[in-house]
Amino acid sequence: MALSPDQALTFMALNRFGLGAKPETDLAGIASDPRGFLKQELDRKSEILNEPGLMDTKSALQALFEQKRVEKMMRDQMPATKDQPAASMASAPQAIINAGQNAMQPAPGMAVNDMAAKDMKPLKVQRDANLNESMARFLHAYAATTGFAERLVWFWSNHFCVSTAKGQEIEMTAGSFEREAIRPHIVGSFGSMLKAVEQHPAMLYFLDNQQSIGPNSKAGQRRGKGLNENLAREIMELHSLGVGSGYTQADVTSLARIITGWTFVGQNGKDGEPGTSFFNANFHEPGDHKLLGKVYPQNGVAQGEAALDDLATNPATAKHIAFKLARHFVSDVPPPALVDRLTQTFMKTAGDLKAVTQALIDSDEAWAAPPAKLKNPQEFLLSSLRALDFEPDDPKPLLNALNNMGEPLWRPSGPNGFGDTSDVWGSPEGIKVRLEVASVMAHKTKSQTNPNDLVVQIIGPVASAETKQAVARAESKPQALALLLMSPEFQRR
Amino acid sequence: MKLYCETPSLSRRQMLAFGGSLIASSFIPKFARAADGRDPRFIAIILRGAMDGLSAVAPTGDPDYASLHGDLALQLSGTNPGLALDSFFTLNPAMSNFSRLYKSGQAAVVHATATAYRDRSHFDGQDVLESGYAGAGQTPSGWLNRAIAALPAGQKVTQKSSLAVGATAPLIMRGPAPILGWAPEALPEAGDDLNRRLLDLYQHTDLKLADALSRGLDAARMAKGDGMANGKLAGGMDSAPGMRQAAQGAARLMSADDGPRIAAMAFEGWDTHQNEGGATGRLFNLLTGLDGALADLESGLGAAWSQTAVVVMTEFGRTANINGTEGTDHGTGTVAFLAGGAIKGGRVIADWPGLKQAQLYQARDLNPTTDLRALLKGLLSDHLGLGAATLGKDVFPDSDGVKPMQGLIAA
Question: Most CB within 10 Å of its CB: which of A356, A369, B231, B286?
């Protein structure tokens, strides 16, 4: 069958840039203007996620602080005895959490956590928050029209990743961090996103900036403590300029000095509302500081914001972001002409991410590269659920699936995030586990659609004769659906 | 040639020699038992993929069988001889437990049977088999669930829950009646057959993925070793350990006083297009699993086995001829197995259509002469007490013309 250009572009729009077709996806509508269809999703604020019942970072951290306070109180007052180790621990934190839950209305379809009922262990607020945030995120991606905005969110969330492996504070706030610091900016300016991220409690905690003290600051003088360069280094190496782009160790140290005092209010609340970002002048290294040859005069928090503004529009940052975007959406080895064009757009618009994203969509290269890139586990999982008309009602199996496939949600092993090339995900174990996940979904879906019809809807324009035959000859519906999900046409984008 | 094969192998006297509960119930007319201590169990096993009935229960007495089924044909002599059921039919040697049950009057075979479905799509065929409708895509509920919903209230069978074995309920068990689900922990859903099919697809379309998958599967095989050991990871539902694990779990639950009385499970992997094997090989291995599962149900149900009826069915049969890859393609007529203490067994029930070219359905498949719904209606009527009107309207819609098969349950 000859492939009409419209059909090929429709498939590309949905899979390279989105989260795949759903049974009800209007393929003809997309075919009439694939590029326009993607751009429309950027105009609809579909990247914003504000379900009632999701806590903002401030409330989240306050709930965690309260849980810690009560746990400590219980430990201090009622040391666990041999006879009654857990009983006394269980009740009080539970009461706190119940109080916290009353304050928030669970969103429709949100998981009801049954842990407490099941084994009478105290329900940890951070686990509850993480499950609610995960569920809201899964449902948002599941319901998206094309999923393009969501894919951008995931891209930026991985670029500016935090990891729950760091501790309860991140487990508690990884979701709100994404909703507060990433989502509002994916079609805004890169500089705004950079500043929102680097001043967010989750990132400050993740990369230890709340511990970084200017040696000559009041606190530094008093306590004899000093800089922690962790956040400053990653801002330059990972978040903006990119490794090997010409900055020096002196620049890293200087940026670390510049952002000393960027922290958040702790449990005691003496500096403001617990859980909110604030600039601690007592930690800040006084004086003018030179970064990449430019002097930033002493100016409180504005000193660091000025430095981030310049980093955000640095040509090295433009190139770094352009390369990562093109690599993510188009090819493990992105066409240099495309990277150049995105870099130019970034520079011309001072990091207007809407313009850069539109330039990606408008380019010919982004559509011409063959679909060789293996979906990452998140893309695979959500595009599968969408294809199977399988609306999630419990985040736990999905989180387990992501764990097993090697992309645990909000839990990369380091600040560089998850890898973004096919070889990361195409390992023997990775593909084998992917097949198991596909098989489970294929068994669990209540989709009534004939698998042969689903092939047409989901991978129709590119489905090979072999794949069609394998699906048609499968011995059962679940087997047919698993083969569809595992077919190269569905796996690669 | 028409040959009616019904060969009871046990006399009434021999049957009475069995356990006390069987004797006690044997003398009471079945319709009078609804309100008494009778407590029947019913188990439906679906074989997904279309089982080759001519290799499972071979018509070795039919002069055309051996030439049609070629290398796959069962024989009564030589290495791996089949197990004679009577002078005409021979059971696959994989099924020694079934043979034992058959000889003791607790198992029967229905041959040359099929649902109302006459095309050859697995999906639609299974939909018809499990929905109980005459065509595919009519309803999201299954006939067994609707039968449960229609059972008269007050009996033990309705007071107890019903069980769907596996990570999800098969269609046959979906519907208005509430059901219980159970699956072995960490049941691996991707069975060997799916692995093989995907690997084959990759080898034709994506060599990188083929390499990754094959190495991933090798590693998993090595790691698994003897999977039964930890009691967790027995195998997929297309493997003997997986089938037996499912049966053992179901039997354990159903043997309990307050356990479920009705259950359904599905075994996979019966789509034997290549290297089907006959007296050994792939189909043999699958039948070994099924046979072991039946033995596990028998031993696991204990005393309850005497009031148990198990029906094993598949969406359709396979071609009478062997294809070019030492297998068989999608066909029509096939066999259904019955087992359990409640079954009036020891016989093959068949209105044998013959295997000459003109006698085959569309000149390729075993011609179905028994509507599977007649068998199922007979079981639901005599074992569970469902009335003809309900069976013809709610359970198997538009099937009034299909009369319930009489005498399947030991009275």
Answer: B286
